Amino acid sequence: MTRTGFYPGSFDPVTYGHLDIIARAARIVDKLVLGVGVHHGKQALIPAATRIALLEQVTRPIAGHTGLRIAVTTFDGLAVDAARKSHAGVIIRGLRDATDFDYEVQMGQMNAAMAPDIETVFLAASPATRMIASSLVKQIARMGGDIAPFIPKEAREAMAGALKPAH
Ligand code: ADP
Question: Which of 41, 120, 143, 162 could form a disulfide with 91 if both were Cys (CB 3.0 to 4.6 A apart)?
Fold first, then answer.
């Protein structure tokens, strides 16, 4: 039986923190569907199509190393509905700190009330990538800082394109 997981997020941009969670999810599931959230009213820096292409590209080595099957999709509704659509029995989420814990556990419990057949599995962030947040990466990039320690080269290039002033 194939065990499938669903890992929802904005991935705007994908960071080494996300990649750490994806690589470690390979120990839990055989297949992982990455759900790129494209909710109305939530303005992303990087277009959804680019975020999908980036995720496909930067997760390829993980699939190669671990044997994890990775698929990428978008969703604009409830994560539990998107997880069901992907035939996922578990939702994977990462926990960086107490703020993540409070929010994620509450959301996990509300998701469990809506979909008791889907289990949320929380992975504690690894020490080396725990501090990385997409929102801070964007702020640093806008101020001209070096974001190389936080996101892969392909994502840096996409960020540079997205931040280029339009003429
Ligand atoms: P959202 O917009 O839902 O917060 P993100 O793309 O920021 O989406 O994050 C998706 C998931 O990845 C969340 O569970 C978040 O806690 C987790 N995550 C983000 N950054 C890291 C990190 N550096 N280490 C571990 N987990 C992380």
Answer: 120
